[in-house]
């Protein structure tokens, strides 16, 4: 097995992809809207990926956050709210917001597990600050670290109950970034004391099964390298200060925050201390270059992957409609008029 999570080109595996994936044996896969047509097609695709690898616990990832980040959309799948919906409810009822976030994530997990998807890249633990780029924006669970951690914990629990593994992102925090790392490299000049706010939600959820790094430079931590490529950030901050010992994957290798060849990027990710290289585009030439730069997954990373995938324990008694109804009843509190 190689330390790669790879994308694919369309709604079904091509012969070239099938041969390549058999040869490379990536640790897992990630799906996007280009890979999705309808529920029957998606179930067939995820079953094909599992059959190809022979692994029932194969990580098949998706970014299904709710709001503007949703790969599965109507008419085949319902709309889910963004993180900000639970932040607003928290102002009225913290306990209600936590329960609503848990029910929402449980519904997400049940929906995804039914499709054969095993990992959702959620929750965001980023704490936005005034003046930051809107790439996080309404995706955030709040603007205060304790609130973000409380809601994030509920999301992880709900996903696991629904049968899906959660991923905390973007460690050690994307909330201060003044640019979109899909397009350019953000540089954060906050002090160590200021960055404590960004780290706090990740510290409180250090036992999360998986985490995704931020393609962001933090000058107080490592002025020369973004977190994804920084041994200092990964070893000293993520592993030691935060205390995260779960599976650590990079954000997408194809984002413009990173420079150099795809082979150089992949090697840099692993050299810095990430367990898994994430490459999303499904471009065969790029994937071949990435695969040529890596060796077999390390024993420690393999153990972290196995532990992470064991977190999701779907409860057959849970029902999607019940979770959605409970979520909606709680979120409705935000729109109730104040008593006279």
Summarize the structure.
GO terms for molecular function: beta-N-acetylhexosaminidase activity. With 340 residues, the chain is an alpha/beta fold.
Walk me through this protein's architecture.
With 340 residues, the protein is an alpha/beta fold. It has a single domain (2-319), classed as Alpha-Beta Barrel (TIM Barrel). It has helices at residues 15-24, 39-53, 83-92, 94-114, 145-162, 192-204, 231-242, 262-272, 284-293, 299-309, 320-331, and strands at residues 2-6, 26-31, 60-62, 64-66, 69-70, 119-120, 165-171, 187-188, 210-213, 217-218, 247-249, 277-279. The strands form three sheets. It has an eight-stranded parallel sheet. β2 (26-31), α2 and β3 (60-62) form a beta-alpha-beta unit. It is globular, with a radius of gyration of 19 Å. The termini are far apart. The model has no long low-confidence stretch (mean pLDDT 96).
List keywords for this structure.
globular; eight-stranded parallel beta sheet; alpha/beta; 340 residues; TIM Barrel; two-stranded antiparallel ribbon
What is the number of domains?
Answer: 1
Largest sheet entry: 8 strands, parallel
Work out the radius of gyration.
19 Å
CATH structural architecture: Alpha-Beta Barrel
Annotated CATH topology: TIM Barrel
CATH superfamily (homologous) name: Glycoside hydrolase, family 3, N-terminal domain
Name the shape in a single word.
globular
CATH class: Alpha Beta
User: Total strand count, please?
Assistant: 12
Protein name: beta-N-acetylhexosaminidase
EC number: 3.2.1.52
GO molecular function: beta-N-acetylhexosaminidase activity
InterPro entries: GH (IPR017853), Glyco_hydro_3_AS (IPR019800), Glyco_hydro_3_N (IPR001764), Glyco_hydro_3_N_sf (IPR036962), NagZ_Beta-hexosaminidase (IPR050226)
């Amino acid at each position: 097995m190689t330390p790669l999570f790879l994308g694919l080109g369309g709604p079904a595996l091509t012969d070239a992809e099938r041969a390549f994936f058999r040869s490379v044996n990536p640790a897992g896969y990630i799906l996007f809207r280009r890979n999705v047509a309808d529920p029957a097609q998606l179930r067939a695709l995820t079953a094909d990926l599992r059959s190809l690898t022979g692994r029932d616990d194969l990580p098949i990832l998706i970014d299904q956050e709710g709001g503007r980040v949703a790969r599965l959309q109507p008419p085949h799948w319902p709309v889910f709210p963004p993180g900000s919906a639970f932040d607003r409810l928290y102002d009225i009822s913290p306990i209600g917001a936590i329960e609503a976030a848990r029910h929402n994530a449980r519904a997400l997990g049940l929906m995804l597990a039914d499709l054969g998807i095993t990992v959702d890249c959620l929750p965001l633990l980023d704490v936005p600050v005034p003046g930051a780029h809107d790439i996080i924006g309404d995706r955030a669970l709040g603007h205060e670290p304790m609130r973000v951690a409380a809601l994030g914990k509920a999301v992880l629990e709900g996903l696991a109950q629904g049968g899906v593994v959660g991923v905390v992102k973007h460690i050690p925090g994307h909330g201060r970034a003044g640019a979109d790392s899909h397009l350019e490299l953000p540089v954060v000049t906050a002090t160590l004391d200021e960055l404590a706010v960004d780290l706090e939600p990740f510290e409180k959820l250090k036992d999360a099964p998986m985490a995704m790094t931020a393609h962001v430079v933090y000058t107080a931590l490592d002025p020369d390298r973004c977190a994804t490529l920084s041994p200092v950030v990964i070893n000293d901050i993520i592993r030691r200060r935060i205390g995260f010992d779960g599976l650590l994957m990079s954000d997408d290798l194809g984002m413009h925050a990173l420079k150099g060849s795809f082979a150089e990027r992949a090697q840099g990710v692993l050299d810095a201390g990430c367990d898994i290289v994430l490459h999303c585009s499904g471009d065969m030439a790029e994937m071949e270059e990435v695969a040529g730069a890596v060796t077999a997954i390390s024993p420690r990373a393999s153990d972290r992957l196995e532990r992470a995938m064991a977190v999701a324990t779907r409860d057959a008694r849970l029902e999607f409609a019940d979770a959605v109804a409970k979520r909606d009843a709680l979120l409705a509190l935000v729109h109730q008029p104040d008593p006279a």
